Amino acid sequence: MNARIFLATAFAALVPFAGGGCDATNAATPRDGDAATAPASKPSTRPTTAPINPPSTQMTTLTGTLHGGMMAIGGETTGWKIVGDGAVGGVELDVSRVKEDAKKLEGKRVTVSGHMVDKKYVERGTVRMMRVEKIAEAK
C-alpha cells in the first residue's frame, strides 16, 4: 500500500514539470512569425545533397588496388572501389560493363578508365563514382 501512495505522489510531483498537462487552448497553436509553422515563400526544388561541382565529362584514368565485395547500409554501394598506392578511402567504381575482367583482377593493382558520374542513394545521398569502361592489370 505504501508503494502505491509513493508512486502516486511522485507522479503528481512530475506532472507540472512535463508541460502542465495537455490543454486544448495551447496545443499546437501557431504563433505569429513562427518559422516552424509558416509556409515557405518559395520552396526549393534543388536536391539537398547536390554536389558542389558537376562531374567531368572527360575520360579519367586511375591506378591502384581493386577491391570488390564491399558492403554498405541498405546495399547502397556498387561493391567495388579502387584505392591508390599509399592512400586510404578510394573511389567507388561501377564495373557493370567490365564485371568479368574485374572479378579476375580483384585484389590486384589495376588501371581503370571511365567517366565520373553522380549516383543518388536514399541513405548516402549523392555519391561520386567512376563508371569503368576499361580495366587492365597495371604494369
Structure description:
- This protein has 139 residues and is of the alpha+beta class.
- The protein has a domain at 60-137: OB fold (Dihydrolipoamide Acetyltransferase, E2P) (Beta Barrel), CATH 2.40.50.
- It is built from two helices and five strands.
- The chain has helices spanning 2-14, 99-105, and strands at residues 60-67, 80-83, 91-94, 109-121, 125-137.
- The chain has a five-stranded mixed barrel with strand order 1-2-3-5-4.
- A hairpin with a 3-residue loop joins strand 4 (109-121) and strand 5 (125-137).
- The longest helix has 13 residues, at 2-14.
Structural class: alpha+beta
Strand content: 25-35%
Number of strands: 5
The strands making up the biggest β-sheet line up spatially as 1-2-3-5-4
Helical coverage, percent range:
10-25%
CATH architecture of the domain at 60-137: Beta Barrel
The main β sheet shows up as: 5 strands, mixed, barrel
N-to-C order of helices and strands: HEEEHEE
Low-confidence stretches: 13-24
Distance between the termini: 84 Å
| CATH-assigned fold name of the domain at 60-137 | OB fold (Dihydrolipoamide Acetyltransferase, E2P)
Shape: globular
What's the number of helices? 2
